[in-house]
Design a protein that fits this description.
single chain; 239 residues; alpha+beta; 14 strands; 31% helix; binds thymidine-5'-phosphate; binds aspartic acid
Length: 239
């Protein structure tokens, strides 16, 4: 499988065509941005870590939680063969604990527990700053149809249940995360994009230390160390 024409370059990944029309190659970069691209930097080793973590978690979600994903197979440290999809233009956010923008919106301290998970949708548009939208916006604008939206919700909560338990075993609290879904050429809804410290908030269960991109966003230091710690806990020393 060889990389063809570059189809797209995002903030953290590039996408290339392959010889097969409905397959493409995702290539993870070490580049990091925050605040809609205003803050830029490099997190050494991030591309490799996010590629490996995403593929491992997607494999587990497929085999153990029955969630279809775009994953075909890992090609190298930074590159993965995936099914080509039309991305549903929504960021699907699941929250288990108050943090980040929710803390600001509702005036609660970060770390405040929630009685049940919260599901949020943002319309994927950098120019608009990814505004939060609800079911009515999504259906009225035609970003997803009713059946697709219901399936996205079902998958999002099932992914949350699976990942909470998975990370708990390795001493990590899953605070919140962002998912993206896509539609394959044969019309199937699949989980796409990535599941990594770029797109999840991970806190050490005991010390509550942040092990995710908030270390970069908030200049907390040792960003590389935090990403490596997550990788090592997932692949290594199971507690
Ligand atoms: P928020 O609290 O800033 O809204 O972020 C919620 C979750 O979504 C958090 O786990 C980080 C993730 N996220 C992304 O993956 N991409 C983004 O552009 C933003 C703003 C958040
Ligand atoms: N990656 C996003 C951006 O650059 C934001 C974030 O993850 O905080 O806008």
């Amino acid at each position: 499988m060889t990389k063809g024409k570059q189809l797209y370059e995002g903030k953290a990944k590039k996408v290339y065509a392959t010889e097969t029309p409905d397959e493409c190659i995702v290539s993870y970069k070490d580049d990091a941005t925050a605040f809609n691209g205003l803050k830029k930097g490099t997190i050494r080793g991030k591309g490799t870590i996010n590629n490996r973590l995403t593929n491992y978690l997607m494999e587990r979600l497929e085999s153990e939680a029955g969630i279809p994903t775009h994953l075909i197979r890992e090609l190298s440290d930074t590159d993965t063969l995936v099914r080509k999809v039309d991305i549903v233009p929504l960021e699907v956010i699941v929250r288990n604990v108050v943090a980040g923008s929710l803390a600001k919106r509702v005036g609660k301290e970060e770390g405040t527990p929630l009685a049940r998970p919260i599901l949020e949708f943002c319309y994927k548009d950098d120019g608009l700053g990814d505004p939060m939208v609800n079911d009515y916006h999504i259906l009225a604008m035609g970003w997803a149809d009713e059946k697709t939206l219901e399936t996205i919700k079902d998958y999002a909560f099932r992914i949350d249940d699976y990942l909470i338990a998975f990370f708990k075993e390795i001493g990590i609290d899953l605070i919140d995360f962002k998912l993206e879904f896509g539609i394959t050429s044969d019309g199937r809804l699949v989980l796409a994009d990535e599941i990594s410290p770029d797109t999840c908030r991970f806190w050490d269960s005991v010390t509550k230390e942040k092990l995710d991109k908030d270390r970069f966003r908030r200049d907390l230091g040792d960003v590389e160390g935090a990403y490596k710690e997550v990788l090592e806990r997932v692949f290594g020393e199971r507690r």
